[in-house]
Design goal:
5 helices, mainly alpha
Length: 156
């Protein structure tokens, strides 16, 4: 398991977004752009993949301690911070699901007509429904022929 895997697992477990990771890194005066962080989380075979070095992971972990626990002067409860983060994630998911479900227009079904022009290609008038048991099995074709190998001397 390399640093990229550890970083990815922490990101998923704590439900952190890229902008939150940038803020956490800035707590320990480590500057990194969202694009660079995105490159760390890419697939290993991607062209823009970036290896997560020890320094990046070390600074992220130190910043994460400050983010979750706070400083000596201003201590925080880690579980409260995690719950706040989860509430923000739930709000974002709920907003996205509401926004994606809004139909632009009401559905109005077309009236059915019995003309030949509106039928699909495979549809026949008076055709019986498909039943797989009615279908005759195809004859089995022998793919590999029987071959005699004559290697070496003839045996009598």
């Amino acid at each position: 398991m390399n640093n990229n895997d550890i970083f990815k697992k922490l990101r998923v477990a704590l439900q952190l977004r890229d902008d939150q990771i940038v803020e956490i890194l800035e707590l320990v005066d480590f500057r990194m752009s969202k694009g660079e962080i995105g490159n760390i989380f890419r697939n290993a075979d991607h062209a823009d993949f970036m290896e997560c070095g020890d320094q990046v992971l070390r600074n992220f972990l130190n910043g994460l301690v400050i983010h979750l626990r706070g400083t000596k002067e201003n201590p925080k409860n880690a579980m409260d911070v995690i719950r706040q983060n989860q509430e923000v994630v739930k709000k974002n998911v709920a907003e996205k699901s509401k926004a994606s479900f809004k139909p632009e227009s009401e559905f109005k079904p077309n009236p059915k007509t019995d003309s030949k022009k509106t039928r699909a290609k495979g549809e026949r008038s008076g055709a019986k429904p498909f039943n797989p048991k009615d279908k005759k099995p195809a004859p089995k074709i022998q793919v590999v022929e029987k071959v005699q190998y004559k290697n070496g001397k003839n045996k009598k």
